[in-house]
Amino acid sequence: MEIRSTTDEDLDVFVDTLHAAFGRFPETPAEGGGGVWWAALEMDRGLLALTGDGRPVGTAGAYSFELTLPGEILVPAAGVSAVGVLPSHRRQGVLSAMMRHQLAELRARGELLSVLLASEAPIYGRFGYGPATYTRRLTVPRRQAALALPRARGTAGAPATGPDTGSVELLRRAECGEILEEVYDRYRRAQPGALSRPHRWWALRAGQPPISPTPRYVAVHRDADGVPNGYASYSIGEPDTLTVDETIATDDAASTALARFVLGHDLVTQVVFKHVPPEHPLRWQFADFRAGQVSGDTDWLWVRLLDVPRALTTRGWFTDGELVLDVDDPFLGEHGRYLLTVRDGKADCVPTDREPDLSLDVSDLGSVYLGGTAPSTLVRAGHIRAHRPGAATLADALFRADRPPHCLHWF
């Protein structure tokens, strides 16, 4: 079997092989080649697995993104996608060979981590990826959709969040592409776990709504100065359900105003928010706390560290402390023990022969890296081994983020 890099000339073969791996048939691209999810594929980052006689049997690709780390730090991240093996060649080592080849290429590019969305949860842990952000669906019956006024008070008795002095404008998706791109980019730069959406994705209409050309209504929120600072992309389908693809807002006032807008829509019986962070405040804003019915609680972004010391010294930190981490990477046959020292928001990470505080797999380090998974949870689950009392508690404090990580982007 041969694994080789792809070029633009391989696009049709790559797309056909990938669709065959999932038992699907490709859509017809719109005029100009856009409007399909694979329009933004970077063929200089793709891989083809070929049999001895040159037949393609597997694919793997990667997108060039930026990932926001705790502390509003932006780093390049490889977004692994388009991974598939023909049913006739599964369980023959094709996927493992492609993953090993790809990780070597990513390291050669100098990338410190890679990310993916896992089609099946058991697959990618063995390649060193760990679930790092989570999302859920929130369904709200219209009859229970009333939002309560804020009770918390700030200085001088004023509501802590303050009234919304902005406005909401209803537009069609085709009318507001530049607004969506600009607002999303401002949002993702401050949100840990968020990925960039490169301009070419918007230009080629690649991906899922609201990037794709699928018809959508968009509620755009503007602040008191008329500057767009949030949007909600939605559609209405049977049975009388308004479904929000995503709500993007740069502050809580805009988020609340957009929620109030969609929840107040006439002629629907329920509103479904497809991607809500686990700690989103919306449920606490309902007059009836039970109004928001949670479902589809699932993992979203998986993280794989390619350079442990570099990754740990790049993200922001919010508690001082010192830990010795014993990190095993069985897929790549690597093992390292590192002294992590955090002072004044900066970390130093160097090899050490000191006794470890925590022993963990590189996939578990990926899970805790963005602050969305507490190390103590993985200790209790038997994934991480704590070698001394208090080590897990200190790790929780060290790895916490400035705000819970969340990722909306599909790729």
UniProtKB/TrEMBL annotation:
UniProt cross-references to PROSITE patterns, sorted A to Z: GNAT (PS51186)
Name assigned to this protein: GNAT family N-acetyltransferase
Keyword tags: Acyltransferase, Transferase
Domain N-acetyltransferase: 1-150
PANTHER family named among the record's database cross-references: N-ACETYLTRANSFERASE EIS
UniProt subunit comment: Homohexamer; trimer of dimers.
UniProt-listed CDD domains: NAT_SF (cd04301)
Organism: Streptomyces kebangsaanensis
